Structure formats: C-alpha cells, structure tokens
C-alpha cells in the first residue's frame, strides 16, 4: 500500500492528525514530510504494524503509549503504561521553575524531583542546568526503570532511586519540585486517562491532597535555608495548598501561577 492509501485507511477510524503522526513515527519522518511521499509504497510489515497501531488507538489507547514516546520540552521521552504521559502544563512548571532558579540562586543547585515518573521534570532541569545535582525519586519501580532509560537515552546524569516521597531521602536540597498525584479518589476523569494511565500516578485520597500532605510533613528536614519548592496543583486546590504551606512555614513567599488556560496550576514557595 502507499502512504496515501494507509492514511485514507486510518482516517476511517482515527483523527487525521493522529493518523499522520502514527505513520510518520513508523517511517521515521516528521508528519509534514509525509506529504512529499504520498505515492511511495510502504513495506508490508510496516503497513501491518501501522494498521495494528491504528486499531489500538481506535480501541482507546493513548497515541503516546502506542508510539512509545512523547515530546517534552524539546526532548523525546520514552513512555509506557507504567508512567504518566507528560503534560503541557508540566512544561510550564519546568519553564517557570527555571526562571525562579535563575532569580534566586547563584552557582550549583541541588534539586530533587519527587514522583519523577518518566523523568521528564528532573531530567529536563538537569539538561538546562548542567551544573545542578539532580535526584529523581518515585515509589514505582517500573517508573524508575523508565526514567533510567530516559536518562541514558538523553545522556544525562541523575541519582535515581526508590522512595516513598522523602522516606529514603537523605540530605538537604535547594529546590524541591513535584507533580504528585492530586486527583480525588472517585473523581470523574476522562476514560482514556482512567483506562490507561497508572492509578498510582493519578489519585491521592478523598481530597486529592494526600501526597502534598506527605511531602510537607517532612519537607523542612530536606531544604536548605534558602530554598524553592515548585509544585503542580489541581485547578481547585490553591486554597488547600496555601493552608498546608502556612501550617508548615512561618514566613515564606507564595506565588500561585496560572497555566496558559488561566487556571491556577502551579505554586512556588521560596524565601529570598
Ligand atoms: C502525576 S505523576 C507525575 C509524573 C512526572 N513527574 C510528570 O510530571 O509527568 C506522579 C508520580 O508520583 C509517583 N508517586 C505516587 N505516590 C508516590 C509516593 N508515595 N512516593 C513517591 N512517588 C510517588 C507515581 O508513581 C507517579 O510517577
């Protein structure tokens, strides 16, 4: 079959952008380039694999898991069902964290990414701040495997180990960053998320705050005098988080930032 015929076939079942992305990935091209090859014939084996992948997406599997990678902050991160698919909002968390680090610190910083999943946050920070010492921890052994693979692929050095948030962590950090699970148990979420992404990466107790509470319980033992804590939060959690922060610290600066959709999705806590 030709590229064009395969695309026509796929578009009967899935969105045309997904059809293009999927085929481009299999042919190692970028989606725009495909248009120059519409009449080229595609090897049978690849055509069959393509149809299988189209079927998987039609059945409700996320494109990123089918392809096995996702672009995050300009890098390709490997993903599978053991890790959350990195989201655009989290790129905004990284972007803003880099700005705060630039403003608050000079020289080498020590960073810990709590609940590191694929490693997207911590490894991106390491790439942008080569002098930084970066630790990645997660409670899921299979997520840790994936983040180690990503560190290897991207040729980035980080200490990657298993911990229930701060339980196995020793020492103090300048920057603590986390995008922990924050969905309320039983909350309605999209089927494609609920049916495919790891429960451990999504849910955090009846109020969705269990992970933040756990992090803040131990945080004071693990931050230097001058520190930055950067957190992704659910869109209705600002007030709850501010309370947890005020119960933990006497005097700190708290900035709540909105994402591009103007929802309160990030909190930065620091002292100057
Ligand atoms: C929302 S995902 C975030 C993954 C990745 N950092 C990202 O931004 O895409 C939360 C991660 O926290 C991990 N996690 C859940 N409970 C944890 C715990 N008690 N201690 C450490 N990590 C935990 C999950 O395994 C998952 O990888």
Properties at a glance:
alpha/beta, two-stranded antiparallel sheet, binds S-adenosylmethionine, elongated, Rossmann fold
Order of helices and strands: HHHHEEHEHEHEEHHEHEE
Structural class, from secondary structure content?
alpha/beta
- Provide the number of structural domains: 2
> Per CATH, what is the topology of the largest domain?
Rossmann fold
What oligomeric state do these chains adopt? single chain
Strand order of the largest sheet: 5-4-3-6-7-9-8
Low-confidence stretches: none
Number of strands: 9
The radius of gyration computed from the alpha-carbon positions, rounded to a whole number of angstroms, is 21 Å
Can you offer a commentary on this structure?
This protein has two domains: 3-59; 82-270, Rossmann fold, CATH 3.40.50.150. The chain has ten helices and nine strands. It has helices at 3-11, 16-26, 44-58, 63-67, 88-104, 120-128, 141-153, 191-194, 210-218, 238-248; strands at 69-72, 75-78, 110-114, 133-138, 159-162, 173-178, 223-232, 253-258, 264-270. Helix 6 (120-128) links the parallel strand 3 and strand 4. Helix 1 (3-11) crosses helix 2 (16-26), helix 5 (88-104) packs across helix 6 and helix 9 packs parallel to helix 10. With 272 residues, the chain is of the alpha/beta class. The mean pLDDT is 96. The strands form two sheets. Strands 5-4-3-6-7-9-8 form a seven-stranded mixed sheet, sandwiched between helices. Strands 1-2 form a two-stranded antiparallel ribbon.
């Amino acid at each position: 079959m030709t590229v064009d015929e395969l695309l026509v076939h796929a578009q009967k079942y899935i969105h045309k952008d997904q059809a293009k992305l999927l085929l481009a990935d299999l042919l190692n091209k970028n989606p725009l380039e495909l248009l120059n090859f519409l009449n080229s014939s595609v090897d049978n084996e690849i055509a069959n694999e393509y149809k299988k992948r189209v079927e998987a997406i039609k059945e409700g599997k996320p494109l990123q898991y089918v392809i096995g990678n996702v672009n995050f902050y300009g890098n390709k991160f490997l993903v599978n069902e053991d890790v959350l698919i990195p989201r655009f909002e989290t790129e905004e968390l990284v972007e803003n964290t880099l700005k705060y680090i630039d403003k608050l610190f000079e020289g080498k910083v020590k960073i810990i990414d709590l609940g590191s999943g694929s490693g997207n946050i911590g490894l991106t920070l390491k790439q942008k701040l080569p002098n930084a010492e970066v630790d990645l921890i997660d409670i899921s052994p299979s997520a840790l495997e994936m983040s180690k693979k990503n560190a290897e692929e991207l040729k980035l050095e980080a200490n990657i180990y298993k911990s229930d948030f701060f339980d196995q962590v020793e020492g103090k950090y300048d920057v603590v960053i986390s995008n922990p699970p924050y969905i309320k148990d039983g909350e309605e979420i999209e089927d494609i998320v609920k049916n495919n992404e790891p429960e451990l990466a999504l849910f955090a107790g009846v109020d969705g705050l269990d992970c933040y509470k756990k992090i803040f319980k131990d945080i004071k033992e693990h931050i230097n005098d001058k520190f930055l804590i950067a957190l992704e939060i659910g869109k209705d959690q600002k007030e709850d988080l501010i309370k947890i922060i005020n119960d933990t610290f006497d005097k700190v600066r708290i900035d709540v930032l909105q994402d591009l959709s103007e929802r309160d999705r990030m909190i930065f806590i620091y002292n100057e």
